[in-house]
Amino acid sequence: MKIAAVRENAFAMPLNNPAYPRPPYKFYNREFVVINYRADLEALRAVVPEPLEVIGDTVAYEFIRMPDSTGFGDYTETGQVIPVRFTTPSGKVQEGSYVHAMYLDDNSPIAGGREIWGFPKKLATPKLSHEQETLVGTLHYGSVLCVRATMGYKHRELPLEPLAKAMAKPAFMLKIIPHVDGSPRICELVRYYLEDVTLKGAWAGPAALQLFEHAMCDVARLPVREVTSASHYIADLTLGLGEVVFDYLQND
């Protein structure tokens, strides 16, 4: 293969049989169960990188079922998201969320999410199911149970406008790509938005959340002190591409 052909075709690895197609990626009937809980403020500050600032002491624990996504297929994802504040170089303050940890069961979105955006994805076995009047979420890392979540099914309908505004806020993550010598080649704070969001329904209900200690799946590093709210909603959306807002290798 000629050098020019390599340059033209190289967007993902392996070169001749990429692990995922080119974006954009659209998601249909994406189902969210989000349990908000109070954690320890100092534990949050210890894991959220500057220049982001932690807002309060809360964490959103998310289970997401993606039954129909272009390029990525049918899979389930779970993880922790932390409310944060970011001040742009122009001085504008943005409120959004920091994606702290993600666990999922599908190679293609693991590879694409890590390589394109820098999503902190690891291979595991999350499940979200409907058991009679209860939504049940679990996360196993290998054979070990790391998370158990339950929520009452559609106890109260939620207005869509406040949720739509929340989904319009940016999310941030730390993209790290090593050099061939093991040193960091890329170390960037990335911002992205959800696009073309169509909410199809949203509901609230009682919820419970348990996190269990595991050396390689350390969700319990952000311990549950009190569950404050829970929501269950379904949406179509497009995962917007990211932009670099801070380069750790170029800025002090």
Automatic annotation (TrEMBL):
Signal peptide: none annotated. NCBIfam families: PRK02265.1. This is Acetoacetate decarboxylase. It comes from Rhizobium beringeri.
